[in-house]
Predict the structure.
Amino acid sequence: MDNKKFDQGKTYMGTKADARRINTLINDVSLFTKRTLLLWLPEVESLMGITAERFLVMFELNMEPDRSLKELAQSLVISPSSLSVMINSMVEQGIVSRLTDPDDRRRVVLRLSEKGYDLFRLADDQLVERFEAYLNQLPKKDKDDLNKAATMMLDVMERLLKR
């Protein structure tokens, strides 16, 4: 990211510049995430025996369980019919469970099974190991700055998500 885009240290109070800076941050984090996943997921796939697509389904269900097929498809930006085929297979393998929503008996929701959660954790641990190796190659100042920024962002994001 080009730091010249913003006045460093200047506080914005809900201005367009503030919104643009936050939007750029989100875009840059998304791009970094996509690049690292594309780089690291093939190795995790071969080690764990799960495809990148299945990992992303598991990631989404880990972050937000009890979502309908339609909601999950929207989040993954794929058609419900395409996702349905994968979910059926994951249900047969015992990775995903279909449950009746206790608040609306007509609604079926998806959730990682215990086996699915364990598999997701193992795959996620593999990705964390790759990220750790990446961080260890960075200069100390970059690692320190990234850690400080990540800590602050996590605090803010957790507060916002609780609203």
Residues 36 and 131 are 8 Å apart (CA to CA). The mean pLDDT is 88. Helices lie at 16-48, 52-63, 69-76, 80-92, 114-136, 140-162.
